[in-house]
Amino acid sequence: MSALDLAERAGRAIAPVLKAFHFAIDFTDPAHCRIDGETLVLLVSNAAQENRLKNLQRRIRAALATAGLPLTDIAVRIIPSTTGEDYRLEIPRCERPSSASGAAAIDREITAIEDPALRETLARLRDTLAPATPEGTSALEERLAHESLSLAERRRELSILEGDLSYGIDATDLPSDEEVAEMPPLAAVRERLLGKIARQTERLYNVRDEIARIDTRLEVINEALTILPENPIRAEAIAAKSVEPSCPASEELSQPVPVSAAAHAALSTLVNGTTSPALRKTLRELLGTLTPADTDFARSLKADIRQEMSRISSLTKDRRTPQQKKRLDCLTEALSELNRSDVRARELARELYGTID
């Protein structure tokens, strides 16, 4: 009887440890918990449960020591299966649903809940949905590792393509205005090369944008893998973060630009040129709203240039005026320079949009 009492006390002592790992066996039941001298014998049904308990032996020993129980060793054994044809009553079982993604979704939203009772209920639901075995953690780690390898391979391909496009743009030898004046047939060659540069520049922009999104996703994966051993649910929530996809060129050009380097250059010129104090004040307020941040100035200017280039390129060649053709040449050369270096971004903005004809 003393051994049974000690076994029940030991089962109660280790219950909180096992509950945190969603272990469903009740070790206060003598069928699963025995005492053999100073050894606590835990009986399980299969090898998976045996391995999980062996991995938790240090925590179990700590719980027993905290409870003051005279048990110095732990043994985990599998209950042997019976070979007889005993009658068994088949009882329908309802397996606990397991969803790492569902637990992660709740974990992302739980901090915004103000009601303590509702927050506690959602926390229990999150823990219920979380995978009950380490296999969930291993699956997440394997999935993230596979994704990171795929992204790294894609990034390597894009880096090679980026170098090829940059070299192709820089190596294009455009006929100068003087050469075109001396040999008019070169005008068609120049226009064809400018169109090629514009297409390559647009493709280069898309490649760099995809590389930036891959880098952002790799940072998210690294953060999730770092926290995975300590908090699998939080790791799943981090891994579920989506990287906002950038718009394709056609979509980007159809959307209004919230800030504009071109507007900044034009408004700055108007502010300096107007003699009306009221108009100057209004323009300055508008300037503060439309001016992009310093770190985004070059990117905003590229968007403005591409938008104007798309508007001119939408016209057929025979419908373009000489001024529009010349403007397209200037825009293409400015975009090529920005892709090489954005040091002169503000100066280029003033040259392209800060003059009043």
Brief sketch in words of this structure:
By secondary structure, the protein is mainly alpha-helical.
Structure, explained:
This protein has 357 residues and is mainly alpha-helical. The protein contains 15 helices and three strands. It has helices at residues 2-20, 47-55, 57-66, 100-109, 116-129, 135-171, 177-182, 186-227, 232-239, 249-254, 261-273, 277-290, 297-313, 322-340, 345-353, and strands at 33-36, 39-44, 73-78. The protein has a three-stranded mixed sheet, covered by helices on one side. A hairpin with a 2-residue loop joins strand 1 (33-36) and strand 2.
Overall mean confidence score, pLDDT: 77
Overall 3D shape:
elongated
- What is the count of DSSP helices, taking H or I runs of 4+ residues? 15
Helix-strand pattern? HEEHHEHHHHHHHHHHHH
**Quick one: biggest sheet?**
3 strands, mixed
Low-confidence segments: 244-257
Number of strands: 3
Structural class: mainly alpha
- Radius of gyration (CA) equals 34 Å
Strand content: under 5%
Helix-strand blueprint:
Layout: H1 2-20, E1 33-36, E2 39-44, H2 47-55, H3 57-66, E3 73-78, H4 100-109, H5 116-129, H6 135-171, H7 177-182, H8 186-227, H9 232-239, H10 249-254, H11 261-273, H12 277-290, H13 297-313, H14 322-340, H15 345-353
Parallel strand pairs: 2-3
Antiparallel strand pairs: 1-2
Helix pairs in contact: 1-3, 4-5, 4-9, 6-8, 8-9, 8-14, 11-12, 11-15, 13-14
Characteristics:
about 350 residues, mainly alpha, 3-stranded mixed beta sheet, 15 helices, elongated
